[in-house]
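Students often ask what a holo structure prediction actually looks like on paper. The answer is less mysterious than it sounds. You provide the chain, you provide the ligand, and the output is a string of discrete structure tokens encoding the 3D arrangement of the protein together with zinc ion.
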Amino acid sequence: MSQSSTPQQDKGSDRLPCLYCGETYGPDDLERHTAPVHCGPCITCVDKPACFSCRLMYCVCDVHRYRG
Ligand SMILES: [Zn+2]
Ligand SMILES: [Zn+2]
Ligand SMILES: [Zn+2]
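The corresponding structure tokens follow.
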């Protein structure tokens, strides 16, 4: 995937928005947004990173369960 559009670029930061939550993250949060979590029986969110919010109503994952 290559994005040709270049919105406002902050000098000195090459931060990218997260694929899953849309937040822009830096090195500190890299793991939270990229490291897969083997959470359990919910097939919707298994192996998604911790920042992912599962919108499945019956999701039982502690990490992914959507908190409104
Ligand atoms: Zn994220
Ligand atoms: Zn999950
Ligand atoms: Zn889930």
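The chain is about 5% helix and 0% strand.
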